[in-house]
Amino acid sequence: MKPSSFLLILSLFLTLPACSKKSKIASLTKRADQSALTKNDASAELDYLKIRQLDPANLHANERLATIYSARSQPQLAFPYLLAVRSLNPSNIPNRLQLAAILLAAGRLPDARTEALAILALDPQNPDASLLLADSSTSAKDLDDSLAFLRAISPPPSSISYHLALANLLTRQKNLPDAQAELATALALDPSSSQVYLATALFHLSQNQLPLADLAFQKATTLSPLNPAIPVPHSNLKLLLRAPKDARSILSQFLEKQPDSPTVSLALAELDFSEKQFPAASTIVDSVLANSPQLSPARLLHLRLTLAASPPAPAAALKEALALQAAFPPAIEINLQVAHARERLGG
Prior knowledge:
By secondary structure, this protein is mostly helical. Among the domains are: 25-89, Serine Threonine Protein Phosphatase 5, Tetratricopeptide repeat (Alpha Horseshoe); 106-191, Tetratricopeptide repeat domain (Serine Threonine Protein Phosphatase 5, Tetratricopeptide repeat, Alpha Horseshoe). Helix content is 78%, strand content 0%. It contains 19 helices and no strands. Helix 4 (75-88) packs across helix 5 (93-105), helix 7 (127-136) runs parallel beside helix 9 (160-172) and helix 11 (194-206) runs antiparallel to helix 12. It is globular, with a radius of gyration of 25 Å. The protein starts with a helix and ends with a helix.
């Protein structure tokens, strides 16, 4: 055999695995995308996971997996893919907003604030990032810096989010007249905004102005009856007003229209738990966990129900508590439940 022929055969042999891998990824991507188009997310998920096994840096697969798990309210599963997308494509603002929201919900406020600032560096007028920046600012310095940052940018003329973010920061600085002025500006920009009435309700709630808060929650609900951010704080307000039946009614009426809302479902389960209606609470929690098995608030409430079981099941509760402790960042509530389970076991 001629040397040139041998080298040609060798080069073909060496490129075969790469070609085979590339073609397999292309085939899996086509099938996964088709499954996603037909709403067959389970099949799409499996294929995207296979793609990522072949190529962990595959941007499309990471993006799609993050989307699938976010849509299922499974932030713990979405999180590593959101991180991967940020690394692969830092300018993907929707991805970074989702990542910041998860960090905020997990209590990782400094990390959420860093993300919000990074997004605003890419898009200084991004309304969602402004709100995230305000929500994730905690120390006096953070509040001052965030306020200065937002006031230094030129917001879009009709940006209610910008004014709501300022109102949030000013409220926590105890600058109530200026906070109310920002809320009034936001309302003038959009008098039919449910978001503005919700922010107004939360402002009144923070000042213990319960009747005013109640009116604002009612207006927000009328304008956006399917907004899952409204019923939980509104029901909490009714509990403060010693109206548990009204609190339950708010949650139940929302779930009649939107039965798949895990946040509102868990709020109803918490109400059942507080009223010692443990079987009803367990039914709700089991339903939520069937759809979102990694949702930490649901797992924590399930743990509390295990501890409250009759007869008590402290050994099972301790096992569950330790699993929670291992799966999620350290949280006071989880640590308390571990201690409670150990105490029930007698050590």
